Automatic annotation (TrEMBL):
Alphabetized GO MF terms: N-acylneuraminate cytidylyltransferase activity
Pfam family, one: CTP_transf_3
Alphabetized UniProt keyword annotations: Nucleotidyltransferase, Transferase
Gene3D superfamilies the record matches: Spore Coat Polysaccharide Biosynthesis Protein SpsA, Chain A
Name of the protein: Acylneuraminate cytidylyltransferase family protein
The organism's place on the tree of life at top rank: Bacteria
Length: 233
């Protein structure tokens, strides 16, 4: 079983400029994810894709095996992530000559994950029964109870209705916030039937404390606080 880890990090962040190479606990943000991938012991190679020399250099220094220059059209604010992952995977295969069986993408802006989360998501994929695996944490709001949408008449109502009345959020079906931390595909599901959310997508559950994604200055401060607390424990 050959496994590839991809880490896709573009240089043009608007919410936190330069965030992927911003120092977090003494090392660039992206270095935390590269080191987690290596410490997991799961992957034959770790490939980092970016349009930024600074990010690629930081990834190389952290121990990435393969550096992939991302095309400009895949590094725009409006660019989808899945094509960038596919491009990174194909570039890695061209460089190594290996047809990988399992592909795991780790988001560089989610450094709170544990090694156990990576291993658990990959194990879920390899156990079979699904096309791909994503990660998420229990949601604070429920579309069945206290998450509303506005109709064409201007009035609001819950997004999803059941055939029974709900008086507590806890009585609603379990819902999860996608935390964009870990994605796993088989070779077929990544290249032949690619999707982030499909009919056969499984979810590996992570706690809220490891599910913060850095998309703003406040996120960065919260992640830094939680990582410092984790170091002291």
């Amino acid at each position: 079983m050959k496994r590839l880890c991809t880490i896709c990090a573009r240089g043009g962040s608007k919410g936190v400029p330069g965030k992927n190479v911003r120092m977090l606990l003494g090392k660039p943000l992206i270095a935390h994810t590269v080191e987690q991938a290596r410490e997991s012991g799961l992957f034959d190679h770790i490939a980092v894709s970016s349009d930024s020399d600074a990010i690629l250099n930081a990834a190389r220094d952290a121990g990435a095996d393969i550096l992939v220059r991302r095309p400009d059209e895949m590094a725009l604010d409006t660019s989808a992530k899945l094509p960038a992952i596919q491009h990174c995977a194909k570039s890695a295969e061209a460089e190594t000559g290996i047809a990988y069986d399992i592909f795991c993408d780790l988001d560089a802006t989610s450094p709170l994950r544990d090694i156990a989360d990576i291993r658990g998501a990959v194990e879920m994929m390899e156990a079979g029964g699904c096309d791909n695996v994503i990660t998420g944490a229990p949601a604070h709001r429920s579309p069945y109870f206290n998450l509303v949408e506005r109709g064409s008449d201007g009035f609001v109502g819950v997004c999803k209705k059941l055939d029974r009345e709900l008086v507590r959020r806890q009585d609603a079906p379990a819902c999860f916030d996608c935390n964009a931390s870990i994605y796993v595909w088989t070779r077929h599901s990544l290249f032949e039937e690619p999707s982030v959310l499909g009919d056969r997508t499984a979810l590996f559950e992570m706690p809220e404390s490891r599910s913060r994604d850095i998309d703003s200055e406040l996120d960065f401060e919260i992640v830094e606080f939680l990582m410092r607390r984790k170091e002291r424990s």
